[in-house]
Input
Amino acid sequence: MLLELRGLEVRYGGIRAVKGIDLAIGAGELVCLIGANGAGKSSTLRAVCGLIPAYAGAVHYDGADVAGAPVYELPRRGLVMVPEGRGIFAQLTVEENLAMGAFARDGADAASDLERQFQSFPRLKERRRQTAGTLSGGEQQMLAIGRALMARPKLLLLDEPSMGLAPLLVAKIFAIVREIAAQGVTILLVEQNARLALEVADRGYVMESGSIGLAGEARHLLADPRVREAYLGEGAT
Ligand code: ATP
Output
């Protein structure tokens, strides 16, 4: 397994946001974590990449226990997060934002990686000298993903990439996610849009009030009446 969580617990003061979950992702898998608002999805991701400490439990990544590892250490080992709300640098240009993505690694091939991102995201190439704050929401999401790819991730954590985007752009972002996975990058995708997430993923976990309620192959979850009723907006049949 590339990533394995065992009994992961996250607390904010007295609030148990994540209540001891187990989750595993093999190399090359695209796994989604779905669930309602406030179920604990983002907290799980933040604990995996060290942005917040795990209160209890183990986070194993690429053969090592990384719970408690400094937050700057993980991108160097290929664990990279695209945060909710993108986290781009609004005052920097598109090109400078992308260059920041290569900061955590040996940047020897940064120039060719930059060209690669421009091939994948022609819109970003057109706007390479614009400040990132002037981009549309969809372009900013592409920039955030492109910047993460500059770090050459083994494991990419995506937090709500569809948030705030129009349906056409959401479809485009999901096509990009599928492409990145096809290139061999392992992905953990957190999404409120359960249907799209399950359509793109190999496997899924359903989170409810800090716990994993259901887990399995994405196509099985898509067909599961409990998922259909609670997360896909369909009445019980
Ligand atoms: P969303 O889609 O809204 O981000 P989520 O499933 O990602 O939902 P989390 O953001 O992980 O859920 O939140 C889980 C619980 O922890 C919620 O009850 C939330 O109010 C609480 N929480 C999240 N961040 C904090 C914080 N910084 N301080 C206190 N409580 C928090």
Summary: Residues 12, 15, 17, 35, 37-43, 192 surround adenosine-5'-triphosphate (CB under 6 Å). The chain has one domain: 27-50+79-231.
